[in-house]
Amino acid sequence: MKVSKAQAAENREGIVDAAARLYREKGLEGVGVAEITRDAGLTHGGLYRHFASKDALAREACLRAFDWTITPLEGLDAAAADDAPPARLRALVHGYLSANHRDHPGEGCPAAALATDAARAGPEMSEAFAQGVERNIQRFMEVVPGDGPAKRAQTIVTLSSMVGALVLARATAAGNPALSEEILATLREQLAPPAEWAAPDVRTVSASSGSS
């Protein structure tokens, strides 16, 4: 039976969404085409009607994964939206460095779930991943205090610290749950303490990056 253009577009979106989630859960090499299409409710052969190759799907799914939403970054209510940036940043840090985010990689940040895979997958995947990382940086800059080059530098420091902590927390969760929790709690405290967010001084970073 011939599929309408609307249904074909819906099927394609379903494949990309399924791949974006499964890749984050199991890695780029841990998921086969059959599993992706089955999760999307389609047949194995259906994938190649929409994508030239599995690699093409992986690149698009990687970009789709960077559309991830973590409360409260996009889920702020009206009152919270009026908070000062330090309060909003604290809420974001605590949401990102949570047990829930650690335990559900398929719905979370692809930077923490797929960085190693992307580094090994060749330049085209690396380019797609870099676009996603830049999107993350731009989103996080909305809640990081400051302006100019120092603001971007602080965003990179904060984001990189959170990604690294989440990777370590996931890697240790099964073997040493207490250590995993300690990593998350320590970074929450360091990056966004309860009273007032105190950013590490990145002026030296900015200064050194501009010197030769």
Structural class based on helices, strands and sheet pairing:
mainly alpha
* Percentage of residues in DSSP E strands: under 5%
Helicity level, as a percent range? 55-70%
Total count of helical runs of at least 4 residues: 11
Mean pLDDT: 83
Write down the secondary-structure element order. HHHHHHHHHHH
Poorly predicted runs of 5 or more residues: 75-82, 196-212
What features would you describe in this structure?
The structure is a single chain. The protein has helices at 5-26, 33-39, 54-65, 78-81, 85-96, 99-103, 110-120, 123-141, 148-172, 177-191, 203-209. The chain is mostly helical and 212 residues long. Residues 75-82 and 196-212 have low confidence and may be disordered.
Give short descriptive properties of this protein.
single chain; 212 residues; 66% helix; disordered C terminus; mainly alpha
Could you give a quick summary of the protein structure above?
The chain has 212 residues and is mainly α. The protein has helices at residues 5-26, 33-39, 54-65, 78-81, 85-96, 99-103, 110-120, 123-141, 148-172, 177-191, 203-209. This is TetR/AcrR family transcriptional regulator.
